[in-house]
Amino acid sequence: MLFNSYLFILIFLPMVLIGFGIIGRLGHHKVAISWLVASSLLFYGWWNPLYVWLLLMSVLFNYAIGVALLDSNKKVFLVLGIAVNIALLGYFKYANFFIDNVNYILKSNFSFDDVILPLAISFFTFQQITYLIDAYNGKTKEYSFLHYLLFVTFFPQLIAGPIVHHKEMMPQFCNDFIYKINARNISIGITIFFIGLFKKVVIADNLATYATPVFNASELGLEITFLEAWAGAIAYSFQLYFDFSGYSEMALGIARMFGIILPVNFFSPFKATNIADFWRRWHITLSNFIKDYLFYPVNIVMTRYAILNKYNKIGEFLITVLVPMMIAWFLAGLWHGSNWTFVIFGLMHGCYLIVYRIYLDIRYLIFSKGGKSGIFSTALLRMFMFFIVTMSFVMFRSESVNGAISMYKSMVGGRGISVSSWFESKMAVLGDIPNILGVRYDGFFYNGILTSNPENLILFLAFLFFIVWFSPNVIELFRLNNPALGVDVLLKNAKNRILWNINIYFLIATVILSVVSIMFVQQESEFIYFNF
Amino acid sequence: MSGKDELLEKIALVFHDVFNDSIEVSLNTNASDIDEWDSLTHIRLMISIEAFFSVKFTVSEMSEMQNVSDLILILEEKLNVRP
Prior knowledge:
Radius of gyration of chain B: 12 Å
Largest sheet of chain B: none
Distance between the termini of chain A: 16 Å
Helix content of chain B: 55-70%
Distance between the termini of chain B: 13 Å
Largest sheet of chain A: 2 strands, parallel
Strand order of the largest sheet of chain A: 1-2
Structural class of chain A: mainly alpha
Oligomer: heterodimer
Number of helices of chain B: 4
Number of strands of chain B: 0
Number of helices of chain A: 21
Order of helices and strands of chain A: HHHHHHHHHHHHHHHHEHHEHHH
Number of domains of chain A: 2
Order of helices and strands of chain B: HHHH
Strand content of chain B: under 5%
Largest interface: A-B, 19 and 17 residues
């Protein structure tokens, strides 16, 4: 079931909420939890009932391992638990990819039944791996199986995150307060939900109509013009941004209606001025996972080794930063799906982060104290960040590496730069320069694949740049209302004056948002992150 | 000289090795005072201290120590020099 469907918005969600409210009021907390679990399983099974069993088996297995770990703290259970989770993910997500690659290298012809990727498997597997590691490290304690079942299956976060920690959720389920549905939480939840729905169905789905034809054409090997490629790439960057932030906000809003507060997953990433900052704002729960469970464990072991063996600066950098970073981002890329485009996307970000690290180390060497950055440098850095992130998203979006390369070729002017014929006489003063640069006067969008109305697209994109660079985000808007977990550091410098409250203005805004977005709801418009 | 001052002096040696020589190290020094003290150099700092004092920190101890006085508390425990 999709958040952006009439079935969910008009029937499923109200029924589940009313049922939960009534059962909670009557004081049957266990029944209320069971009601949420049953609803979540229905929500998941709507897509493919068979895989509900897979989900349940995974939950049962991990709960058992978790209990064993909390009792005995034996490393063998941890290793077994992680191995089984990885094996399950490997089978369902990567078996075909692996065999295709083996066949390609060995020129062989092994075959294997096509496995349908179970929805959400990457998310619930990672979530349970974090649970096992936390249990092993004594960072969480034991709770009932019913609560554990809800921790994994809770429908607002089941399909595409945020990846929640056991210790973040369990105390909330035990809090008597959540069983008394209250008006304030409902209004906060509804407002956040509709902001998210609006982002998804009005903005992201609309951008897809620009981005998709360009990427499809590139995949077919069509000669896309310079501006078409850029417009398509930028449209996709915004599509992904609004699709994922829309989803994350809908998840946050739905959970809030039930009195549950989820961790922050998205915080104006295009306002970042460096790549490390970007990953502290984009898919926050995944990048925390990469840092805490992939990068740092390797980094710590390697640093011990390097310091004991007195490596020089460069040697130390290679084994403590470069290698662990590339391994972590290789895996992070692969996590998104079994395609080399995702692996390259991950490696690109690994390289970005390494270059940034080298830059920092050099800067520390030269200046002992970093200066405060001004408005001008912030603006330049944000533009630069948008550029490198968009470059990586081109790889992320393309169906094949060749398709992405074809996009890059157009984007760097490798197929000439098509401009409209209006420029022909104006450019004459520049002599031969336009010719050398490959400027052609056959029209900005002469293929006509992008849109018949490029002016609309340009205005639309300009408006979106304004939103992502300058407007306060949902977390900031609700900062006095405890909108999400883990926002303290992010909100440290928040200064926005517009703050949500129960008043007539926000009521009108919410009504408009909800009516418009409900009108825009189309069938079958999946969230991009549902594929991971 | 008390045990604390002695520890602080030794810690300062490690700090000067990891960061640059010009920084001042006192009981109040914390991660936000030193530009270079980010999450990655934090690990390097922790492990340099491990090596210097021949102790070993757990991952959660490492993440808890965000200033010099936390560091001294945990080191005192490890080295058993608490009066």
